[in-house]
Design brief:
Probably a homodimer. InterPro entries: C-di-AMP_synthase, CdaA, CdaA_N, DisA, DNA_integrity_DisA_N_sf, DNA_integrity_scan_DisA_N. Belongs to the adenylate cyclase family. DacA/CdaA subfamily. It catalyses: 2 ATP = 3',3'-c-di-AMP + 2 diphosphate. One of its GO terms (molecular function) is diadenylate cyclase activity. The chain is α+β, with helices and mostly antiparallel strands. It folds into two domains: about 80 residues, no CATH class; about 160 residues, YojJ-like (1. Helix content is about 50%, strand content about 15%. It is built from 13 helices and seven strands. A seven-stranded mixed sheet has the order 2-4-3-1-5-6-7, sandwiched between helices. Helix 8 packs across helix 10. The chain starts with a helix and ends in a 6-residue tail after the last helix.
Length: about 290
């Protein structure tokens, strides 16, 4: 039996090249596999997936033209390849920017740097957390609409510039007063950095996700849109129903209670838990 196996291998291995695999080759294969896997996940979770499908259909059409020797179409495709490459970069610009931002959020070197003392610091205090929760449900009880953006790693300077600078300490009274009906600052979003309200009446990008519920208004679409372009946690109080919702990572958790909101804020409160929280937050997105 053993001799038969040896003969089989000898007969079918003649003329075949078996490369000598070293440890560095295995490491390279693993790195490339991880990169391809992350790119596939990134494409699947963004609008780039639909764009990629369109490009694949275009590539299939060109392949058919090559099989049937449609020379005119092949000539046009060959001459326009450089323009298409530039067009792809322009079309994918928001997704490419977000991917680079996500790469910058990893903080690999800061996590292993023993001299980085800021990683143990809180983003905001327990007092700020309690003030946000109290304000949201106080406003929800009287159906006062609100939109609160809690900044994490990515600074939201470009969105702060669209509003009015405040630079005041976070408190439930201030938040309630800002969003009170018919006040100068009630329209738009509030941005919170640490324990400070940096700006109010800020304009946020609206989500163009066509799968979200038609029942959602402009505030919820703005919260989703903001969560799609940055890592901020966005809190929405509905003016129609008084329900509180949270958006993060392009996903919306609707009609949460005070304990759930407190849990979501607690997960981003400490800088040292950024990597862990990216996964723990997503576990809660079972409702939409």
């Amino acid at each position: 039996m053993i001799e038969w196996i040896q003969n089989f291998i000898r007969n079918y291995s003649n003329g075949m090249y078996f490369p000598h695999i070293q440890i560095k080759d295995i490491i390279e294969i693993l790195i490339v596999t991880i990169i391809v896997y992350e790119i596939m996940l990134w494409i699947k979770n963004t609008k780039a997936w639909m764009l990629l499908r369109g490009m694949l259909m275009l590539g299939g059409f060109i392949l058919l033209a090559w099989l049937f020797q449609m020379n005119t179409i092949l000539y046009l495709a060959k001459e326009s390849i450089n323009v298409l490459a530039i067009a792809a970069i322009v079309v994918f610009q928001p997704e490419l920017r977000r991917a680079l931002e996500k790469l910058g959020e990893k903080n690999l070197f800061s996590n292993i740097n023993p001299f980085d003392k800021n990683k143990e610091n809180q983003r905001f205090s327990d007092e700020t957390l309690d003030s946000i929760v109290r304000a949201c449900y106080a406003m929800g009880s009287v159906c006062t609409g609100a939109l609160i953006v809690v900044e994490q790693v990515i600074q939201l300077t470009e969105y702060e510039m669209t509003g009015i600078e405040l630079d005041c300490k976070v408190s439930s009274q201030v938040l309630i007063n800002i969003f009170e009906h018919n006040t100068p600052l009630h329209d738009g979003a509030v941005i919170i950095r640490g324990d400070r309200i940096t700006s109010a009446t800020c304009y946020l990008p609206l989500s163009d996700n066509m799968t979200i519920s038609k029942d959602l208004g402009t505030r919820h679409r703005a919260a989703l849109g903001m969560s799609e372009v940055c890592d901020a946690l966005v809190i929405v109080v509905s003016e129609e129903t008084g329900l509180v919702s949270v958006a993060s990572g392009g996903r919306l958790l609707r009609a949460i209670n005070a304990e759930e909101l407190r849990s979501q804020l607690s997960q981003i409160q400490y800088r040292k838990t950024e990597t862990k929280n990216k996964f723990s937050i997503r576990k809660g997105w079972h409702r939409s």
